[in-house]
Records
---
Amino acid sequence: MVPTVGLKVPLVDDGDGTALLTDQYELTMLQAALRSGTAGRRSVFEVFARSLPAGRRYGVVAGVGRLLDAIEAFRFEAAELEFLAANGIVDEPTLRWLEKYRFTGNVWGYAEGDCYFPESPILVVEGTFGEAVLLETLALSVLNHDCAIASAASRMVQAAQGRPIIEMGSRRTHERAAVAAARAAYVAGFSTTSNLEAGRLYGVPTAGTSAHSFSLLHDSERHAFEAQLASLGDGTTLLVDTYDVERAVRTAVELAGPPLGAVRIDSGDLGVMARRVRAQLDSLGAHDTRIVVTGDLDEFGIAALAAAPVDGYGVGTALVTGSGAPTASLIYKLVARADSPDEDAPMRPVAKRSPGKPSRGGRKTAIRRIDGHGTAFSETISTGEAMPGQRDRLLHVPLVRNGDIVGREPLGSARERHARSVAELPTTAIQLSKGEPAVPTEFVQGGPRP
Amino acid sequence: MVPTVGLKVPLVDDGDGTALLTDQYELTMLQAALRSGTAGRRSVFEVFARSLPAGRRYGVVAGVGRLLDAIEAFRFEAAELEFLAANGIVDEPTLRWLEKYRFTGNVWGYAEGDCYFPESPILVVEGTFGEAVLLETLALSVLNHDCAIASAASRMVQAAQGRPIIEMGSRRTHERAAVAAARAAYVAGFSTTSNLEAGRLYGVPTAGTSAHSFSLLHDSERHAFEAQLASLGDGTTLLVDTYDVERAVRTAVELAGPPLGAVRIDSGDLGVMARRVRAQLDSLGAHDTRIVVTGDLDEFGIAALAAAPVDGYGVGTALVTGSGAPTASLIYKLVARADSPDEDAPMRPVAKRSPGKPSRGGRKTAIRRIDGHGTAFSETISTGEAMPGQRDRLLHVPLVRNGDIVGREPLGSARERHARSVAELPTTAIQLSKGEPAVPTEFVQGGPRP
């Protein structure tokens, strides 16, 4: 799309612009700062959570790759500028500034898939105040959503103890959030998703066979099974709880024989049903036919089925709603800024003093300290130079350098990193019960950064 | 975008296609039904919730306008077809069917903004099985999200008793869900949103002035206030809790005088602070300066401030997360289908018998029965012809007729309808305490529809 400010162009939703996924106050602050001469002051904003959702042991960083795409698409083009002008949201000088806007600063962050803890500075944005303040809402939206989903997903993956989980919650959340949720769940260790757009956009493996409506469409369950087997092959998963599970399993094995891939149970007491169906399948010689259970599962429901003969789980609502914590409560705070717009003006730590919501001034570095057994024992945050020991991990990686995206990576890398990051935590991390963060956050006063 | 199946085109995200915002099993069911000859059977699917979120008195229908846009954009074009082909998700005959896909059926639904109750058939989709099953995930995603948000928003609006509420939760939810949330909140009676894209796409009035970072950017709070007043005028809202509220209010009135538009308090005990600030403003002669409070408010927090001198509320997290109920638990169920693909084959009611999840077969009509005082007393659902009394309201309106969208309306109409719909409910509806639905759902057996 070519910017054509001054010309009237139709206001179409081009669908990929991200510049207005923003709270109005960022633009009014920009306008006021441009006028007061402070918009050019070098500034550092940090993203962190004051606490984890009640009782959670760790959080999971997700959405980093999506955020980088969104920053790249953050441009004020004709549609955006015309809206702002027509509604008098900002003045002429600000419109001219926005027209040329392109983020030229630097971003560091925790790598996608890594774990985080209270106060972990998971994103650091450095630029002029004007260019950095504009990214506040977008950065928080992406990270608050994706981290919430990945944090819940990771607990489910731990509860499943190696059994695969399919993500199938698209219908229970906003249609685009569903795509991001599928991606975040995959980072956290889910095997597949039902969401096709997540397959197309992000390469997440997709899965899915049939619903109850398919059985109801046909003149009998037998007809429905025959139709599905004829089209999708014996390796498919047949849904067996539309009418009577025992009869359905008998019909399924009669039609497909032992090569039948799997049966799915979506209702009733899943543990009891799984045992009965396993015994029935075995008695029919279908020893290799797997049992997949779905139906309002969350991490606790999955854990309760650990001893049941279940070969895979499907999780929907609990995943896309963050299993009780639908947002990660991450905030975006100005922690340092220059005294003048000069490029080499010294940086000054800043912090608000609002009751109950204090912030810590100064740009932070973060280290995960690792003991001789390879286990994390401290999230060490410092306003000075990071001083990692030999085994410790420096947590920030470069994501954007002078406006260029440098932090892209394949999604599989984030998924592998997450598995390593959880494995490195103390064993308390994978307890589902409520408790303290698995690793304590410790603040170290440091000298000024060089 | 021109479909160019057969040619290799780059897989770009054109951003407005909706056909892959779908669970894979809809496509595999389509494939199997095409093969078994059942895909062309006329079918009726209904969207309803088995229950409201625990203790809620009513739900609010929202997202209808968004769903109509999404249905119109539901086409399998080059990018979608190539993904499906490359990943072997469906076979060649299905790809050819999808390429020509366009929904040609009918959709009726509760009008946007109307209230709903357990089992209310808020959407009825009629078409061939193939064309109607494909809309399952998309319809549920849009409605589950938007209804959840609007249902929470409506309670907040009732609690605010006429005081305006600004929606400011964008940062706490997925970046595109945020836009839909702002729209749903407006339908439910919120005054404004901070989300600029909701302003551009849907015409929701936008608002916003400044954050704490603006005060921290400047050398003093006084400088920050001067900058904001110079740029945005005396009618702006100054944020007064960055350092010390009393000093900030004094400075604010000193600089702007009594014409100061408003002050915003974002932390502390909002009721106590509002009383102190009101007294201080009055003592300084700023009788018309309004007080806006924000900071983790939900419907209960708003209600608790009813007696405080507050002129407006800002609500973020609680709004975009549905205040404890982030999804509306709506489901999409096949309730009737023909015995053959013949256009005039008789329709047969169908229902599954899964334990705990039974469904009622047959296409439904719905009436809100209204007594002589204009108060609703029954949600009457029938599988026969609707027989409304003189005061009763027939709840279904036509949304799509033979594939053509006929149900579009200005967003303001939905907002006005919602206000009327809530006003018509018994007064128990606006109690925030947990309880039964404000209007009981009653099933009436009816004869066959003509």
Note: Chain A touches chain B through 112 residues (CB under 8 Å).
---
Amino acid sequence: MRTGIATVSLSGVLTDKLAAIAAAGFDGIEVFDNDLIASPLSPREVARRCADLGLAIDLFQPVRDVEGVPPDRFDAVLHRFGAKLGVMEELGATTVLCCSNVGADALDDRDLSAEQLHRLGDLAAECGVTIAFEALAWGRHVDRVGQAWDVVRRADHPAVTVAVDTFHLLARGDDGAALAGIPGDRIGFLQVADAPLLDMDVLEWSRHFRCFPGEGTLDVAGVVAATLAAGYTGPVSLEVFSDVVREADPADTARDAMRSLLLLDDQLRATLPPAPVAVEPAFLEVPAGRGVTPALRALGLAPVGTHRSKPVTRWSNGGVDVVVNDDDAAELSLGVTAAPVAGIAERAKALLWPEVDRTRGAGEALLPGIGSPSGLHLLVSAEAGGPDHWADDFVGTAPAAEDLVAIDHVVVAVPTLRLNEEVSFLRSLLALEPGAPEEFMEPHGRLRSRAFRPRTGGLRVVVNVEDTGAAPATGITQVALACSDVRARVRALRDAGVPLLAVPDNYYADLDARFGLDAELLADLRAHSLFYDRVGDGELLHAFTGPLATGFHVELLERSGGYDGYGSAGTHVRLAAQRSAGQLASGG
Amino acid sequence: MRTGIATVSLSGVLTDKLAAIAAAGFDGIEVFDNDLIASPLSPREVARRCADLGLAIDLFQPVRDVEGVPPDRFDAVLHRFGAKLGVMEELGATTVLCCSNVGADALDDRDLSAEQLHRLGDLAAECGVTIAFEALAWGRHVDRVGQAWDVVRRADHPAVTVAVDTFHLLARGDDGAALAGIPGDRIGFLQVADAPLLDMDVLEWSRHFRCFPGEGTLDVAGVVAATLAAGYTGPVSLEVFSDVVREADPADTARDAMRSLLLLDDQLRATLPPAPVAVEPAFLEVPAGRGVTPALRALGLAPVGTHRSKPVTRWSNGGVDVVVNDDDAAELSLGVTAAPVAGIAERAKALLWPEVDRTRGAGEALLPGIGSPSGLHLLVSAEAGGPDHWADDFVGTAPAAEDLVAIDHVVVAVPTLRLNEEVSFLRSLLALEPGAPEEFMEPHGRLRSRAFRPRTGGLRVVVNVEDTGAAPATGITQVALACSDVRARVRALRDAGVPLLAVPDNYYADLDARFGLDAELLADLRAHSLFYDRVGDGELLHAFTGPLATGFHVELLERSGGYDGYGSAGTHVRLAAQRSAGQLASGG
């Protein structure tokens, strides 16, 4: 698959964009005319810069409102188009995207449109240029790919082809079937973009909410597959506008964009090492520091082993393991088990996810480390019983089962502009699947939250974005530990002097209003500072510490009756309580 | 008009909200249940806090999904409603807002809904409480005020009334006429909110984009007038949710909210000192500092007078006046002429716009100073020829006419969260009218821009918001000066060593493509670093300096043929050029 991206898809000035696109390994670009117009580089200088960077200029775009034009004004179109052909000659570009007319005065006359495109085709052909004619989803009279193809067919000119844009096509409710009957060599260009399904004006949707394939909900792969099946052999080129890419770092955007094409290609042709099918939480790695040991002891963990070659101690309580690293360079990390370990490391590398530097002694577990955009460090271990299991690197007593059952979930906070990338990390590397997005009021803004889980396996990761104007926390901000008896664990924490988040009395009054709880349970919840939720027969009881010396808040929870959520109904209360307590409101 | 506001309309925790609401002078509040639930204060403590602050609790809201409930689950509703009545008793609140059912299982049976509301009415009446039943615009079966009134009429209970909410009513396409036939004493509560007209899902629109009356485009005043005409005598209470109010400072929001009610009241009953009908730009006041004098000289201004009592010098060139203030506390300010001066000062005071401290010598012009949310200082002078004209405070030679014609417009930058307030300043104090909102790509984000002008008079103010992630500039960032010969003024600036913003050659190539300019004009534009625009017979030629020692960029412009805009087609080029030159991209 030949990869491309439009310069409009990144922030910065043109030279910033070209550098970022080249660094991410793209084959070619679409030059967005406004980027060129605003650049101090001449078209020839841009062409030279691209050549130096190894980037082909696959498309010049857009030229607008060129067909369906009232005949008395078509001379101005010819002048404008001719001028842009001159620019293209200097750029060395040989395909130009022409969009369907959006003008209020556009004429609804396909023969006229065809005739005008034919005349432009003559001009283009003289310069060795091909026109790709695109149906904008908000075109005045041509807004579907089938209509654009009809005009191109009538134009009947070798230099006039149709453009396929997945966003415009899918936004109008078409799918790959809309390309039936279009020969592949009559498709002049393929632009790809995804978007979340939003019920709003299509132009605003397109301008502000497009995203890279796989980050939205449109069937981009289906349209790309149909285009390739028709025989199209040109670039698969990303054209994404959004409030996010306008502001994000262009290097980040370019990598995120390239990954989306790697995943798209994998979806169509299985080109990547396969994703793991089951991922389980295994351990947390915590940098050593003042207060860490007391915090772990208060949670009922005890030291049970030391690492063979590193200054690392394993602490354990039942199903929960924490390794404490005395190395100054240690980072808060999440260990998971998944198979095959080497394959996941290769998949991460193929997807451009950065490796986290780790030394490794002879005979020790492979344990590759991979960094996410939020700064989450993921360490991948094999399951117990085979080679490359993390725990085999430790010498010591086997842990006795106690009252902690498992790491239930981990909450990761990410800045707004990097949310798409973090989601891509979880989906692309680990094949985690997203739950429904949720949004909570926070006293100084909003918290957007989404839970991710593998199709099989017990890992749960909640990704949070805070829109509060303040600099957000990043990486792991909260770890939820499943307890066999959450009340007992709360009491033990209190005995150890660890205060729990104070829950307002009004919350319990509201619980009673909503659920009609019996007085004893209500008193018990209140006495243990527990939040409560119920869905059908399922119940959740959970409590929160403040930020611990471990670097994260701890949530203690007990699920029963098949409760599968995260206590969303009480989240706004917890956020306000955390804000009142002066804690960062970044838990989830 | 009795004024109220819902606590959900402000950011912060409940106690922050109450303090901000009281400081802005509201009569009463709506207690948003979730605010109470998340508060560590008991309902009685909240009641006491409100009493201390002089705030009545006019409404408790909302209780959801209480009618159209499958009968086997109505007992749970009675339990929930009863519990909330208990809370209300402690709060001392006597009106409760019940929203129409949004549940997928809600029954479409008005008699059932009426019967259920009747039973709730019995419970409420026992506690001295009245129910106000509201049709949510996204209610499952009751989504228009007429339907809610039909249910209330059938419920036939003195404690069951209908609520009017301007947003819900107008969002469904109704207007004040929808209230025909509803007696005023059967309207239990009036909630007001405005919104910009957006083509999107109503629930999302409501959650994220509501604003205070006059800040959107809905006919809020019409519905309020109809409600009052029906005989409603209760509070006019603001209920606004938005991404802005979630994050903004609650004190700012509360003042902005109160102003919107003062303006609404004025619209209905002419309660404020009248707004000026004509406003003209008069002068700029600039703090003295290194480089200011050379910058003014380069612009062709010369000193023509000194202030009678202050260390202030008047500089002039034709129709442009700048006063340079040697006082250390001087701020960049805009002087305007408008009448009547004293009335405008009173209007500013009535609308809670802060006065800017100014000393004034005996016999000198009144010249009241008023501060806008962006930090713009506005000084209001009478016209020449009468008392209170600013220029009469200066002694010196009368300025000779030269090549500057007038202050064409002033660009004011404002942080995103304060845009609504800044707009309110221009509209409420000066009765300026907004043009269409525009949005421009900036290399690191977006620039949103809107021009304001009086119905009569020459003042033009452009308000800009930068969404670039960086801390935005605020206050006056650019001043556009109209020139009789912009080319000559550009040459004079260059002779004086003031560089102009470099315009990329590609821009001129595009100009030619778009307009087919003759070669001589094109060469001339290029030689003078001029931007160009044409609409019909109108033309705009304009050039930009970098930021000067005056504290703002200067735009030099020449309009002809009735050109009335701001050169929007070239704005993205200018923004990129300013970014490339390392200048703040905050001009407009």
Note: Chain A touches chain B through 56 residues (CB under 8 Å).
---
Amino acid sequence: MTLGRGLEAIFSPRSIAIVGASQDASKIGGRPLQLLQKYGYAGTIFPVNKSGGTVQSLPAFQSIEALPETPDLAVIAVPAEVAVDAVEQCAARGVRAAVILSAGFSEMGEDGARQQARLTQIAENSGMRILGPNCLGAVGVAEKAIATFSVVLEERMPDAGSVGIVSQSGNLGSFTMRQAGERGIGISRFMTTGNECDIDIADAIAFLARDPGTSTILCCMETCRDGAKLIEALSLAHDAGKPVIVLKIGTSDAGQVAAASHTGALAGADQVFDAVFRSTGALRVASIEELLDVGHAATIVGSGELPKGNGVALLAASGGFGVMMADAASAAGLAIPELSASTQRRIRAAIPYAAPRNPVDTTAQISSRPEILTEVLSAVVDDQACDLTILLLSSSLFLPRLREVYVRSLTEVRQRYPDRLLVLCGSGPKDILAKINAMGIPTVEGIDAVCKAAAGLLRLRAALSKTHANVEVARAVPLSSEAFANESKAKAVLAQAGIPILEERVASDLTSALTAAREIGYPVVLKILSSDIAHKTEVGGVVVGLATPEALAEAHAGMTTRVAEKAPDARIDGVLVAEMASDGVELIIGTKKDPIFGPVVVAGLGGIFAELMQDVALRLAPVDERQAMEMLSSLKAFKLLDGARGRPKADVTAAAKVISSLSKFAVAHVGSVAEIDINPLLVRPQGKGAVALDALLVPVSRAEGTR
Amino acid sequence: MTLGRGLEAIFSPRSIAIVGASQDASKIGGRPLQLLQKYGYAGTIFPVNKSGGTVQSLPAFQSIEALPETPDLAVIAVPAEVAVDAVEQCAARGVRAAVILSAGFSEMGEDGARQQARLTQIAENSGMRILGPNCLGAVGVAEKAIATFSVVLEERMPDAGSVGIVSQSGNLGSFTMRQAGERGIGISRFMTTGNECDIDIADAIAFLARDPGTSTILCCMETCRDGAKLIEALSLAHDAGKPVIVLKIGTSDAGQVAAASHTGALAGADQVFDAVFRSTGALRVASIEELLDVGHAATIVGSGELPKGNGVALLAASGGFGVMMADAASAAGLAIPELSASTQRRIRAAIPYAAPRNPVDTTAQISSRPEILTEVLSAVVDDQACDLTILLLSSSLFLPRLREVYVRSLTEVRQRYPDRLLVLCGSGPKDILAKINAMGIPTVEGIDAVCKAAAGLLRLRAALSKTHANVEVARAVPLSSEAFANESKAKAVLAQAGIPILEERVASDLTSALTAAREIGYPVVLKILSSDIAHKTEVGGVVVGLATPEALAEAHAGMTTRVAEKAPDARIDGVLVAEMASDGVELIIGTKKDPIFGPVVVAGLGGIFAELMQDVALRLAPVDERQAMEMLSSLKAFKLLDGARGRPKADVTAAAKVISSLSKFAVAHVGSVAEIDINPLLVRPQGKGAVALDALLVPVSRAEGTR
């Protein structure tokens, strides 16, 4: 089935039936009916109510069967107990889509989940698309197709525009729609997916990706029930060149617990979502405010004008505000290059006492001679050292005296430099802001917010211009249980997959260990080999730096005793004698199977630091070597690999190759391998490679058994 | 001179002279005159203008001398060239205070600085207080004493109230005053200090600390020119039980550069300011919005009702919003305890399908039956597991139908539980918010913002209830230059100050080194000793783990060769033979003399990690052992000291003792010691102490010479 198929029946239906239509506009069966009439929906409305008669001055029908024609869309607003039957009747009648506003399904436990499963079945059998249940419905804004009971529409209908809003949470989506209206953002479509018995957020995104009336997609997510579908939908939008800006909530442990209890679905690890958005070119934001600010800015400037680099020119009427802007811009990852000498001269020519370097301080002069803004702003906007200009007007636009002059300046500067990106920071009367937006200048109220929005535009450009890596990995024959037996077997399997390991031998007794050491060459490492011992060091099962046969013999005896004491029940497969290596930086790398999105690959500094400092890079598997390199360089600890404090640079190319190979291996063996740990991967100095010193493979069954 | 003395002449003068009074209200000499009359200042106004005549319908005087009586306050609005003379005349006439709005002083280079120095001189000689120059002036709100040309007053006069606003930046302060008005925060006094030739921000804080009309102080800072004065002022406010909430800008490198160029003053290290605010009980915030939100909340609830713990109950009409609130609360450091079984039963009794654990989700029921809010909110507010409740109403208060019912509910709940802390998150009509605020319920608009404000109240309680440590340190006799000669001398001095070191001997040649090693006992460490070599390892000047006389001899020979090669010009004082120790965690501790605030003490994990991870604790010196312990436990790396991953716990008590001793030593020797580095301090397992393995003392002269 094509993603997002059939959603036009919800957004632009020729006719709508309201099942459970009510006279009372505060009821969920009354509000859509009232709103459709109030805002002038042009199609046919069929109230359905078992009592018949007239509802909100329209003739009502007693059932779906009784309707004079088959409606495109049915809005279901009857209690859960009878909703399923109503939906069945809609499907039988050939209705193209149903929006179930009623609650009382999977969110209410097993009985509700059973009812919801029936809905899923109906959708599958009939091909009718179903939105909800337990959702706040949808709106086709230009069409006034209102299939929602959102109280936000009690206030006013959103302006029609090109921004699509999709949300799992009804209230969150509804609030986003309201705030978008407050900021003058025009909406194309609005959809909330609730329990997602059929249509999910991926369908909604995919539909908007193809919808010619939508240019930007704002998305509020709590969870994901089908990872592959979400990835496909986000990729569709990316390929269509449409920004998808995502607020994914449930980032904290407390939030995830709340989300799980709210949606009844596993929230999924937050970092995995980061990886999903990164790999599909979606832009993740941290708050509703940022969602709206970036969405607004992206829509106003259009994708053609996104900033090419992170250099920002800051212009304020006060040194203090300049300092705050510099702080906020730095925190948002923007650079503040010094303006060129000629720009500085132009500024000083207009205002002798101005601070012209960047941030530019026009001083209080600007409020007694506001007309000088034109020349100063022209000079700044024209400076090629910066990719965009942020002009701070704080609350000046509320003053009629200044407002007129400033708007005239902005008009002039915009005409002179139509290709240069300019963003305004401040507040003002709505009509004035709309006028400024119409010039292609976004307006954002706070200093932190405007810098985050500017950084968002920059990230958006990177996200939209990125090409999919397209690492193809064929499924491999499942690994035999043998491969999971111990370190030696695991390493042998990984070595075949191209991951370097050191020379090592399995030895059943001291004599063969001595032979192995002689062949390998001293010094050697001695390790216990047992499928029952996952953490060898904890039972004294590793001794390093054995330089002589005597030392090896002594270590062998000691280890045998210690292991027998600390792990008396472990079945021992022998010992491992391995080449000794220590010159390098130790990483931990591994893979894990995410229950929603499949294998992910992680990399971090070895030892206790990755854990203490939460310094780990995570991506969806597979990754190519370029992506693996990018993972390594995103670590705070990267400096250690990159030759900090006069250390030799480590062979990061080799390390990236190992990460990529491991990630492909995890995908190829997704059916049999649940987790892989390489701890440590020793990354030697440049040109000398990287080797896995220890490895652990966890089979699918074992990992699932312990979950 | 008493801090903050004489500022009443600025805030509540009986008469005001405007020097440079202008007919044109858009000029800086015209606006104060217009505003004083417009808002009805009750005292006498004397326009001073060299042409005399009538200015803005008041008779003008040609000079200060010509005034019929001596005004309490003179506002100086004439160009810099003549401003100093005018100020001199004011002082001669016995005017109590002058506010210099004119620019063109130290911000304009050397000439301006000379003029400003004359102003400082006048203030000192005459006792007349001077505000500015290059400032936006001051306002006594209740008194309508307007000595400012802030455009914000063109719009409206702030409401009188108990919040004082002080700012170095005029615009920043002015904007804060405006936004405070927008949020219904009443103002007592407003002051901007500009170039601070006499009155500085510390004076302003100290005055407000004693001002009976001010209960909360909001402060915008860019820099500090006199550290001791600021600390005294903040301590005064703390002792008066008044919250001081500080927005210190210039946190980033880019911001500090901008601040330095703007104010012409050294901005100071940002972390040192953190330490200052921490030690004086001031609350630092990160943005104007947070300044206003916390200021508003603190003023509305009053200091008596600040939350006792970090448990917060979250109540929303939507699961999605509940999840967002949980995320935001966690990010702000709040806990979200599960509500008691009886609370949950009460909630379920009112709304059968509610999620009652915390966050509480009332479901959309609340918008069709809004009256149930009273019972649900009562149940939540009454739950003793939480210290405060945050109720999210988002934009519901804009809907008349819901608004009335909700306001009634809030009134009832507040009457039933007057001692329980309740904060509202949402927006609504101003008069409705004011009504809710009047019940003692603060209102904050965004989810992140309300959680930050709640956390701010919590931090405020901690800050206000903290007692000063009062570590007394007497000045010591300055150290002789001898103490700075090399590692051995430095350690000897520190050992006298109570900092443990290992046994070690200075040896001039191999023979005496061998003797020393025999006496100390093998294994030993050998180090080069030279006042010209600060970083011994870089020249191969440290060899550890020497177990035999042969090894020592070999190391001695090798080191001599290497050092001669790599540092041929260094004067060598011999070698150091020291006891070997390695079992423990290595810290770096040290002190540095901040140019504004004096000695600070720092502690971090040794090796490259403190630097890579920016994981360092910094406090004003001296610290007592309790504060030193708190420094250690604030480190991310504290887990390493505290027995992470089965390691033995380290002797943090001993480490804290060393940090405290070192900080006292730095204060005692502030005249001669500029910097101290102990790198590493080896912290051994519990009960085994901590020892300085290496130490460096930098004398004041050398540090200042290299700056």
Note: Residues 165 and 218 of chain A are 5 Å apart (CA to CA).
